[in-house]
Amino acid sequence: MSIALIILAAGHGSRMKSDKPKVLHRVASAPLLWHTMRRAESLDVAKTVVVVGHEGEQVSEAAKAFDPDCEIVWQKEQNGTGHAVQQAQAALDGFEGDAVVLYGDTPFVAPETLERMLAARADGNDIVVLGFKAANPGGYGRLVMESGILTEIVEAKDASPEQLAIDFCNSGVICAPAPLLFSLLDQVGNDNASGEVYLTDIIGIANGEGLKCTAITCDEAETMGVNTRADLAMAEANFQKATRAAMLENGVTMTAPETVFFAFDTVVGRDTIIGPNVFFGPGVTVENNVHIRVFCHFEGCHISSGAIVGPFARLRPGTELGGDVKVGNFVEIKNAIVDQGAKVNHLSYVGDAHVGEGSNIGAGTIFCNYDGVNKHHTEVGKHVFVGSNSALVAPVTLGDEAFVTTGAVVTDDVPAGDMVFARVRQVTKKGLGKRFIERLRAAKK
Ligand code: UD1
Ligand code: MG
């Protein structure tokens, strides 16, 4: 059965002490909001509604960047979680399936947990809440259970001492048929300690109407909310730990997994070896059997099978490495396709370029792609040899099997098979080296 997601992301997040809305702070190179939006990826989601408020323009832009089909609704004043959900009612008009409410700042609920909630719905429960045993129940809403039935959720601020002693807490995730959710919310007031419309009040009302409510349990780590910078750092650590474990499980070798950092969307093939201290930014895919040596930094790139990269290589967005390519130490590549078997082994910058199959880019070669205003393309054919310390001034084309001698500054195209010299001819003066030093020494005395 298809579901609708209602993602609450209107809150302020003042404890972050930030000018940026909380849900746009990043974990694994992606806004928290994207992590939440991805929670239900494995489910049949008919519609995603994101409720925005505080800095809502920025939040909706981020939501649309992740899922252009999501619907944005505004909650102009933050009058509570129930009020926030009510803002999604018009967007879900006519939708008869289940609505799942998620928080933008609680992004790590496992997809399997959501599946268990839907299974509990299919089992005949009208409303299913996700709960957890809290180590420190503190300010969480308490789930009041009576023989498997969830009779009430009591906010900490409104709870009696006996209720405060309950450690089974509300994660905030709720699943119910959308029409039922909205009709129950119509009956919720704001007569409570916060003067807010609590989403949690629907449980007591539903019980009064003879509906069946229950709660299922998940690990506390899944329901972790991000409220402070310390929480954000903890969320990052948890994400990395889980991703490293998944990579190892899927056949990736890492000599020091605790020093490798992945993005939310990193893909690495089996039998790839990753050395210590490697950082993956967003948009990186690595095929099988790649060797990544120590201290590399990758973003927006694709590395094909058999490639050897690093140590100390930086691959920036738009980099495509073909099979068996070698990229060595202190090499930076940006917006460039490097074909099968080509080598860029030492101290080079390759930007806005295509390097053909089997070509060799010598040590210290710079692709001069920028004239101060515009970027220009460099085309290097197949089996080209570029000598060390050359500068290729774009736009420029080197034909197949061209040969660039060391230290050349290449400003004009080089036809296929030609050799180019673009440097001052060497002059050697007989005995002058020794005589010159002696003269300097004598002058110093
Ligand atoms: C809420 C629950 C509490 C639960 C806790 C779990 C209610 C009344 N309380 O409390 O039972 O244990 O979460 O973390 O539901 N939001 C809006 N608009 C609003 C208010 C909130 O979009 O008007 C969003 C926030 O941005 C946040 C989420 O809803 O993502 C939760 O709001 P928050 O104020 O943190 O609720 P809690 O008081 O923590
Ligand atoms: Mg909260």
Account of the protein in words:
- By secondary structure, this protein is of the alpha/beta class.
- It folds into two domains: 221 residues, Spore Coat Polysaccharide Biosynthesis Protein SpsA, Chain A (Alpha-Beta Complex), CATH 3.90.550.10; 168 residues, UDP N-Acetylglucosamine Acyltransferase, domain 1 (3 Solenoid).
- The protein contains nine helices and 35 strands.
- The strands form six sheets. Strands 13, 15, 16, 18, 19, 21, 22, 24, 26, 29 and 32 form an eleven-stranded parallel β-sheet that branches. A ten-stranded parallel β-sheet has the order 12-14-17-20-23-25-27-30-33-35, with no helix packed on it. Strands 5-4-1-6-10-7-11 form a seven-stranded mixed β-sheet.
- Helix 2 links the parallel strand 4 and strand 5.
- It is elongated, with a radius of gyration of 30 Å.
- The N and C termini lie far apart (94 Å).
- Uridine-diphosphate-N-acetylglucosamine (UD1) binds next to strand 1, helix 3 and strand 10.
CATH superfamily of the largest domain: Spore Coat Polysaccharide Biosynthesis Protein SpsA, Chain A
> Radius of gyration in whole Å, from Cα?
30 Å
Estimate percent helicity: 10-25%
Shape: elongated
Q: Count every helix, treating DSSP H or I runs of 4 or more residues as helices.
A: 9
Structural class category: alpha/beta
Beta-strand content: 25-35%
CATH architecture of the largest domain: Alpha-Beta Complex
The CATH C-level name of the largest domain is Alpha Beta
Q: How far apart are the termini?
A: 94 Å
Which consecutive residue ranges, at least 5 long each, have pLDDT under 50?
Answer: none
* Biggest pleated-sheet summary: 11 strands, parallel
Estimate nothing, just give the exact number of structural domains: 2
Say how many strands there are.
Answer: 35
